Amino acid sequence: MTLSRRSLLAGAAILAASSRARAAADADVAVIGAGAAGLAAAAAIRHGGHSVVVLEARGRIGGRAFTETALGPGRSFDAGGQYVHWAERNPWREIVRAAGVRTSDDATGSWPVLVRDGVRASEAERRQRRSGFGRVSALLDHPAGPDRSVAQAVAGEDEAARAAATGLTRLTLGEEPDRVSAADYDQLWSGDDIWVDGYGALVARHYADLPVRLDTPVTGIDWRGPGVAVETPRGTLRAACAIVTVPIGVLASEALRFIPALPAPNAEAVAGLTMGAYTKIGLALDLARWRPQDLRDAVILQSGTPGLTAYLEMQPFGKPLAVLHCGGDGARALCEAGERAALAAATDHLVSVFGAEIRAAVTAGRLAPWWTDPFSRGSYSLARPGHLAAREALHLPVAERIFLAGEAAAGGAAMTVGGATLDGERAARDVLKRLGS
């Protein structure tokens, strides 16, 4: 490649602008968001020898990796991520091992009970449901032709297969099947899953020494000058570069303004993605008040909540807890109804499986309302049908000084703590190159 005088002058101008920005900056790099991506990015920037400040809207770090402890000692549960997915290549596998936290391979329990409208399903119904899942799995395995929604992919199948597709997308992606890209689902990585007791707490401990300014929501990023000016209610921070790791739901809401607006390719990438509504409700149990023989997990279908598919996780890691998992529009309705109504609904679902006597054993509860949380606006990202390329397009830098990162940009690793971590490190490498490291 031959460098012209014009290209040399342009390169010199960029370097000069970079030098001016760094001289006037409060930090070399501002990281927006202290979830797994932001924390991983900040750790990598600091390791590369540059100053970094992390700005976090919440009063804690970890983002959507969060261990809820409000139900008291011995009753914590992961309100967000709880699995080290595709553990063979997930960086958290070794971190978990080194920390010595309790884990499970989640493969030793009994088959869950299937309950439809309060009635336990027969063995024939269970076989029919398993058959439906098998056919859906085959249809979604490397689907041919143009990308389409999961609902479209199973449109020609019988009711059992269509119901299985609905259950699949609600309980794995947190969304309705007509809004999920079949190609996006197919490209997600697979492998061994490790269930972690306190994944969110581990993330917070692992990055506890990073310089994070809590309770500092970023309202704007002005990139008209040579660097960036990051606006917060506590003042403006100046940096040479910014790594923006807030969830897609926050970017789409425009609660964080870019001045000028994001260029069209970046804005189109954000618009090509959406957020699911995977939701958990933890119920504390006093098993001295009620202790039946059968405390198996259960899959609940529309038991008191229209459009609901839920998974009831009983006594995770032996704790006196029931954790209701749900997704899609039924989960959105529970989040929007508020914690009190959601806890009442979750208790009713518990009763639908185990009988009215268990109601007396429920002593407290906690809703993880990711859908209505202003700092997440959903559980994790999904590509809209026909927009698979949006994840990769998020990697496009803005003026070589704003870099978007997070689970949404992690490709096959999307929707996971591990994916967010890997993509935060990817963004940090891009920034370090920009800074000349």
Please tell me about this protein's structure.
- Pathway: Plant hormone metabolism; auxin biosynthesis.
- One of its GO terms (biological process) is auxin biosynthetic process.
- InterPro entries: Amino_oxidase (IPR002937), FAD/NAD-bd_sf (IPR036188), Flavin_monoamine_oxidase (IPR050281), TAT_signal (IPR006311).
- With 437 residues, the protein is an alpha/beta fold.
- It folds into 2 domains: 5-62 and 199-274 and 382-434, FAD/NAD(P)-binding domain, CATH 3.50.50.60; 106-191 and 279-369, Polyamine Oxidase, Chain A, domain 2, CATH 3.90.660.
- The protein contains 14 helices and 22 strands.
- Strands 1, 2, 10, 11, 12, 13, 14 and 22 form an 8-stranded mixed β-sheet that branches. Strands 8-7-17-18-19-16-20 form a 7-stranded mixed β-sheet, sandwiched between helices. Strands 5-9-6 form a 3-stranded antiparallel β-sheet.
- β11 (220-222) and β12 form a beta hairpin.
- α2 runs parallel beside α14.
- The protein is globular and about 65 Å long.
How would you briefly describe this protein structure?
With 437 residues, the protein is α/β, with parallel strands linked by helices. The protein has two domains: 5-62 and 199-274 and 382-434, FAD/NAD(P)-binding domain (3-Layer(bba) Sandwich), CATH 3.50.50.60; 106-191 and 279-369, Polyamine Oxidase, Chain A, domain 2 (Alpha-Beta Complex), CATH 3.90.660.
What order do the helices and strands come in, and which of them pair?
Layout: H1 5-24, E1 27-32, H2 36-47, E2 52-55, E3 67-68, E4 77-78, E5 83-84, H3 92-99, E6 103-104, E7 113-116, E8 119-120, H4 123-140, H5 150-153, H6 159-172, H7 182-186, E9 194-196, H8 199-206, E10 212-213, E11 220-222, E12 228-232, E13 235-244, H9 248-253, E14 257-259, H10 264-271, E15 273-275, E16 279-285, E17 298-301, E18 309-314, E19 321-326, H11 329-337, H12 339-354, E20 362-368, E21 381-383, H13 390-393, E22 402-404, H14 417-434
Parallel strand pairs: 1-2, 1-13, 2-10, 7-17, 11-14, 13-22
Antiparallel strand pairs: 3-4, 5-9, 6-9, 7-8, 11-12, 12-13, 15-21, 16-19, 16-20, 17-18, 18-19
GO molecular function, one term: tryptophan 2-monooxygenase activity
Catalytic activity: L-tryptophan + O2 = indole-3-acetamide + CO2 + H2O
Domain Amine oxidase: 123-432
